Amino acid sequence: MAMSKPQQGDPAGFLDLVGPDLSACVFARLQDPADLARAAAVSRPWRRFVEGNGFLKKVCVRKFPELAVLTAAVEVRRSPGPGGGGAVDASAAAQAEHRIYSHLYGALVAAGPPADCILHCIGASSTDNFPDETIDNTLEPQDRVNNRFSYWSSAGQDDPDVPETLTYRLASDICVVDEIRIQPFKAFFQIGHPIYSSKMVRFRMGHCKLPRPSESFITDDDDNQAVIADENYIWTYTSPEFLMLQENKLQTFKLPRPALCIGGVVKIELLGRVQKQATDDRYYICVCHAQVVGRSLSPVFMVNINDSAGYSILKHLPEAKNLSVEELMQDSASDSQEWKDALASYRETGHLATALLNVLHEGPAHPAQDAPHFPHGAALLQEIQAMQGDADLMQQLQVDAQLLYLLQDGVLQLQDEDGLQAMEEDDDADGGGVSDNDPFA
């Protein structure tokens, strides 16, 4: 029997005319998700063809290869779905995956305010002097804190080619990273004011295979070496090498393209040494400040990394876009179990920075005079204290959050020029002495 000829102008007939294989080759050449969205809107057969072949996911993976580790994508809704969460047919699953990657791509390419995404330190490959020169000092934006020099220093080496690494935990398990900034340390207290930079720098991103508590920064050198060992990590992105200048400034290393950090761990590799210390004739690398600049995609997107090979499940929580602090910190009896599990995971991983941003975003809704009381932040900070067990951390977060809150509402004013100049003069006067604990002195 002769096959009926598709009617002229019938878009659905195109798929029947050229066949599924050739149609897939044609659709695969569409490089822009917007083109795929328009193609899916032509007709129901075209939409089913686009969704069923996962073209949108393939486009996302081409632009962000780190997404290749995601083996599944699921939607997490707050209300329990009909049918008690039974099996989902292939068509519905394909529609959901297409929808998730559509939202994900929008989040990946959205223009948003960049921020320093570092949450805390994991560890350094070596440290010259605990506790004065630990990696924790690199989180301070100044090179002096409380009249003491603030920096991380490597151990000394006779070989200038010995590398060093600094490993950090980001504020979210899924972040878009645009650039990394590093400031080498200038030893003002040494003759000639040497700068202990590295020759080159490279960056890796991925996730840690160790349980989260054992990943925390450890001051014991043997334990620290065990934690940061490469076999404990899966790296899904490695940058090219960048030249580091031997200059006392915050140097920006912009990645060739925005990189997706799935797993929330960034390792800074400092390759090669350029500066010897005069007192022992050994090479050192010192860093006073580091930033990983980008955007967090949580809590709307979360990742469950479920095995040692690094294959992961992407979770999309569309209703979490406007999540309030109260909803973040507690579950409702009417919430679905999947929603509760996702929020529990979000809280357990300690995404403090993202949680605080959610608090701060509520600022305009409250009168400025109420800002110092920080009503919603109090419960959050108590929860943070319970998670971290660190009173100093809670106090610092309280101060930082209140300052940001006040600045957001325009309550605080910047110092005038005379005041700033006086502060700088005081700072210069304080810098004349050298601490007895400075090993370089």
Describe this structure in words.
The chain is an alpha+beta fold and 441 residues long. 33% of the residues lie in helices and 24% in strands. It has 3 domains: 86 residues; 183 residues, Jelly Rolls; 101 residues, no CATH class. It is built from 12 helices and 18 strands. A hairpin with a 4-residue loop joins β14 and β15. The longest helix has 20 residues. The C terminus is likely disordered.
Structural category is alpha+beta
The N- to C-terminal Cα distance equals 94 Å
The CATH architecture term of the largest domain is: Sandwich
Approximately what portion of the residues adopt beta-strand conformation?
15-25%
| Whole-number total of structural domains | 3
Along the chain, the helix and strand elements come as HHHHEHEEEEEEEEHEEEEEEEEEHHHHHH
* Percent helix: 25-40%
Which residue ranges are poorly predicted, with pLDDT under 50 across at least 5 consecutive positions?
351-355, 357-377, 397-441
- The H-level CATH homologous superfamily of the largest domain, spelled out, is Galactose-binding domain-like
The geometry reads as elongated
Assembly state (oligomeric)? single chain
Estimate the mean pLDDT confidence. Answer: 76
Largest sheet: 6 strands, antiparallel
Question: What is the CATH domain class of the largest domain?
Answer: Mainly Beta
